[in-house]
């Protein structure tokens, strides 16, 4: 497997020429990097005007590996070839490194670039990428890969420290400015150089230290999160995302880049992407799969607009005993839930599972906003919140089966879509019945999340080692013997007059799924999914918008003057066996003849897994129109260094003979349709989750023609 690394953009607040003077001091060797034993120049060339210098070196590296492994490999040192191309005119340095040792077994490639900052010519940017491909290594491929990645991660950090060290060394020697290169001017036989175009300034004292420990307030003030198309800056990562290891930074940048290339539009916020990486221990493939599932869920249920569109019922405002309350000692938003005072049975009977789920989702969405706000207020990354749960009053009525069922579903949804948002859970005054409840819910909670739970059974939670270690004394709520007034509702029993009938609750069961503008459908091999649309007025416009979530599908639109007959009763169903045809009733009778009984009004469209398809069709005749999605067998994907959405979602397939779509259709009268003729063509785009707007490719395979 190829291991890849992509660094963030690291900014040195010094001119390019000064950085180059510090860089060359690392050769032929540097005590700051003990594994870099020595180097020698094997070739050096220079352009006629001296603007470009190409230097090739042979470097000797002492890898920290077990002695036995070195003996098996038969080497004590590894040799690498480095090619540096320094362009004085453009003020760039491009570095390429390849391994010489074991080049037939291992392929190592590194590319580094020093360039002038695009917005400040007195600053220098640094980026690097690297790849490692161990084809064979005496049966120790995994061990060699781990050693190499560990060594490389260490050298990345050392590289930045080394530049800063030699900058300070230059300053101690009085070298604080180096003129920019200027082209030589020939006058007769005498070569003259023009004076510098600009006068270099000395190194500001406040910029002498640019590492992670720098306390330069101005530097922090200048850090502004860029647009998704911008590259991530190392200082931005430190300020808004936290201290990450080089390999963790690389995972974030590569996943972010993958999203940019796939979605062709706005991408999830960096904090959100980072949560999914952390939840999967920065395993790129697992995090990508996890994130794709959640983004599809968010789009299907319009979760991005929940806080703006959902109005909290008065019943929740009166009887839901939870709310936000200041922040903990680390600046995390603090949410307090008085679960023991909550009438869970009454809330479920009056609101249904759906209402409670929306409430919890709104709490999580609000928590994400508060984390962003606290990050700005406290000047440090805050990506999760603290939850305090007071269990005083918890008893067996809280273990009412429908209530527990609702709780389990809510936990499942939150775990799947809000990973790494809970920083700490403080459970106070846990009664004897708590172990029973914990036994029911703990299997659904991620192991990393369970480690964040702290349980206090008695009333000594205010003693040292208790609540005061995590929350300032002055904001402890009054109902916990604190001095801070808390406006969280006290709850109480929900009046039975507000209870809803079982039929009403059943009709709203899973409403989060059914009241979404999108619907889901499964397509089986040999059993297409068909949707009947009856048109009573000519020139009506049929519009569609669907995502292919799993597998590849054929999309067709047919017109028939005949009304499809209701499907016959499935004979297998009478014996308790469900066939694909029973799951997807067929509108097109098998005895119908294409061209006689029904006709195709749009060219068939092959839709690949992961694509979004939008389009419209103007009808000429009244009658029945049938939208059909059929299973399509796609060829194996070609190998690539980074899988597309297709590859990620393909790994989630349970069956190779099943596809899944998420669709929305609507019929508009001709006078209500405001689109132009060009908008009547199907278009493709990647998934468009967590963004208010997305863009679609103009590539189209189906044209809108009037039906005949």
UniProtKB/TrEMBL annotation:
A Pfam cross-reference name: CRAL_TRIO
Domain PRELI/MSF1: 2-175
Domain GOLD per the UniProt entry, residue ranges: 510-667
GO biological process: negative regulation of RIG-I signaling pathway
Domain of life: Eukaryota
UniProt region (Disordered), positions on chain: 202-225
Gene3D superfamilies listed in its UniProt record: CRAL-TRIO lipid binding domain (3.40.525.10), GOLD domain (2.60.120.680)
InterPro entries assigned to the protein according to its UniProt record, in alphabetical order: CRAL-TRIO_dom (IPR001251), CRAL-TRIO_dom_sf (IPR036865), CRAL/TRIO_N_dom (IPR011074), CRAL/TRIO_N_dom_sf (IPR036273), GOLD_dom (IPR009038), GOLD_dom_sf (IPR036598), PRELI/MSF1_dom (IPR006797), SEC14/CRAL-TRIO_domain (IPR051064)
Domain CRAL-TRIO, residue spans: 312-488
One cellular component (GO) term of this entry: cytosol
CDD domains associated with the record: SEC14
Name of the protein in question: SEC14-like protein 1
Species this chain originates from: Champsocephalus esox
Lineage: Eukaryota, Metazoa, Chordata, Craniata, Vertebrata
């Amino acid at each position: 497997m190829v291991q890849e690394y992509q660094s963030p953009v690291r900014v040195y607040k010094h001119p390019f020429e000064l950085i180059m003077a510090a860089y060359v001091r690392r050769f032929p060797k540097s005590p700051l990097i003990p594994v870099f034993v020595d180097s020698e120049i094997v070739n050096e060339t220079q352009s006629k005007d001296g603007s470009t210098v190409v230097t090739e070196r042979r470097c000797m590296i002492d890898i920290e590996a077990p002695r036995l492994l070195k003996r098996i490999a038969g080497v004590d040192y590894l040799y690498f070839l480095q090619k540096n191309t320094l362009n004085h005119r453009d003020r760039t340095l491009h570095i390429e490194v390849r391994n010489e040792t074991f080049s037939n077994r291992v392929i190592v490639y590194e590319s580094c670039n020093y360039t002038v900052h695009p917005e400040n010519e007195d600053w220098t940017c640094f980026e690097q990428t690297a790849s490692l491909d161990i084809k064979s290594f005496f049966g120790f491929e995994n061990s060699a890969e781990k050693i190499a990645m560990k060594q490389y991660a260490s050298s990345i950090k050392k590289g930045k420290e080394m530049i800063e060290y030699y900058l300070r060394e230059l300053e101690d020697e009085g070298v604080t400015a180096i003129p920019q290169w200027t082209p030589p001017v020939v006058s007769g036989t005498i070569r003259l150089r023009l004076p510098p175009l600009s006068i270099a300034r000395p190194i500001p004292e406040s910029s002498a230290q640019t590492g992670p420990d720098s306390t330069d307030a101005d530097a922090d003030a200048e850090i502004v999160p860029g647009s998704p198309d911008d590259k991530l800056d190392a200082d931005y990562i430190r300020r808004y995302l936290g201290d990450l290891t080089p390999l963790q930074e690389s995972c974030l940048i590569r996943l972010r880049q993958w999203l940019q290339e796939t979605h062709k539009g706005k991408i999830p916020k960096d904090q959100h992407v980072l949560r999914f990486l952390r939840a999967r221990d920065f395993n790129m493939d697992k995090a990508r799969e996890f994130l794709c599932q959640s983004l599809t869920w968010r789009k299907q249920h319009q979760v991005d607009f929940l806080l703006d569109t959902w109005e909290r019922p008065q019943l929740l405002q009166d009887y839901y005993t939870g709310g936000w309350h200041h922040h903990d000692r680390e600046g995390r938003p603090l949410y307090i839930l008085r679960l023991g005072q909550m009438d869970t049975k009454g809330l479920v009977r009056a609101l249904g599972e759906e209402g409670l789920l929306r409430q919890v989702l709104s709490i999580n969405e609000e928590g994400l906003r508060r984390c962003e706000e606290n990050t700005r207020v406290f000047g440090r990354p805050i990506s999760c919140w603290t939850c305090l749960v007071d269990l005083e009053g918890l008893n067996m009525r809280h273990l009412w089966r429908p209530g527990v069922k609702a709780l389990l579903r809510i936990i499942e949804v939150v775990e799947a879509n809000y990973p790494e948002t809970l920083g700490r859970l403080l459970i106070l005054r846990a009664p004897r019945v708590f172990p029973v409840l914990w036994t029911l819910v703990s299997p659904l909670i991620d192991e990393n999340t369970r480690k964040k739970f702290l349980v206090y059974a008695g009333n000594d939670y205010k003693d040292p080692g208790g609540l005061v270690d995590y929350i300032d004394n002055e904001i402890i709520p009054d109902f916990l013997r604190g001095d801070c007034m808390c406006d969280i509702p006290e709850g109480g029993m929900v009046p039975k007059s507000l209870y809803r009938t079982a039929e009403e609750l059943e009709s709203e069961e899973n409403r989060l799924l059914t009241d979404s503008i999108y619907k889901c459908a499964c397509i089986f091999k040999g059993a297409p999914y068909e949707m009947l649309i009856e048109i009573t007025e000519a020139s009506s416009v049929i519009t569609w918008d669907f995502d292919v979530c799993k597998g590849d599908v054929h999309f067709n639109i047919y017109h028939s003057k005949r009304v499809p007959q209701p499907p016959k009763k499935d004979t297998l169903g009478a014996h308790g066996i469900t066939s694909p045809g029973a799951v997807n009733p067929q509108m097109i009778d098998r005895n119908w003849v294409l061209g006689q009984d029904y006709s195709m009004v749009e060219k068939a469209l092959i839709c690949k897994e992961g694509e979004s398809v939008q389009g419209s069709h103007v009808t000429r005749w009244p009658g029945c129109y049938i939208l059909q999605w059929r299973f399509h067998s796609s060829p194996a994907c070609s190998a690539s260094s980074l899988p597309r959405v297709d590859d990620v979602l393909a790994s989630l397939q349970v069956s190779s003979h099943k596809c899944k779509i998420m669709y929305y259709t609507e019929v508009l009268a001709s006078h209500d349709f405001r689109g132009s003729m060009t908008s009547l063509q199907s278009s493709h785009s990647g998934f468009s989750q967590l963004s208010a707007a997305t863009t679609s490719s103009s590539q189209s395979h189906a044209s809108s023609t009037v039906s005949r």
